[in-house]
Amino acid sequence: MAAKRRRFGLVRRLPSGRFQASFVAPSGIRQLAPTTFRTKTDADRWLSAVEADLSRGTWPRTVASGGLSSGDDGNSDCLSSSPQLGV
Questions:
Q1: CB of 21 closer than 8 Å to CB of 33
Q2: How far is residue 50's CA from residue 47's CA, in Å, rounded to a whole number?
Q3: Dihedral through CA 37, CA 25, CA 45, CA 59, nearest 10?
Q4: Given 18, 20, 33, 68, which residue has the most CB atoms within 10 angstroms?
Q5: How far is CA 75 from the centre of its chain?
Q6: Could you tell me how far CA 45 lies from the centroid of its own chain?
Q7: Residue boundaries of the structural domains of the chain
């Protein structure tokens, strides 16, 4: 059976074994998740939460600011209403 393609975003496995999630913003720029994920399911859930936020017209804080700020260690909640997954 062929692998099912995501309709939103991309999840890839890194050499470390962790997973990186990303998506192309409406501006056409690829946005990476603020952290990597332990499992593919966690990365998929993060993308689903981002997709839902975007469909409501709200942007996750780290995406709206263009990424992590210099003082952000990546451990803060990247989706204010959703728990951080897989970190």
A1: yes
A2: 5
A3: 100
A4: 33
A5: 13
A6: 8
A7: 10-58
Question: In one letter, which amino acid is 42?
Answer: D
pLDDT at residue 72, rounded to an integer: 39
Among residues 14, 33, 29, which one has the least CA distance to residue 74?
A: 33
**What is the identity of the amino acid at 26?**
P
What integer pLDDT is reported at residue 67 of this predicted model?
Answer: 47
Q: Taking the mean position of all CA atoms in its chain, how far away is CA 6?
A: 13
Task: Give 1-43 as a 3 state SS string.
Answer: CCCCCCCCCEEEECCCCCEEEEEECCCCCEEECCCCECCHHHH
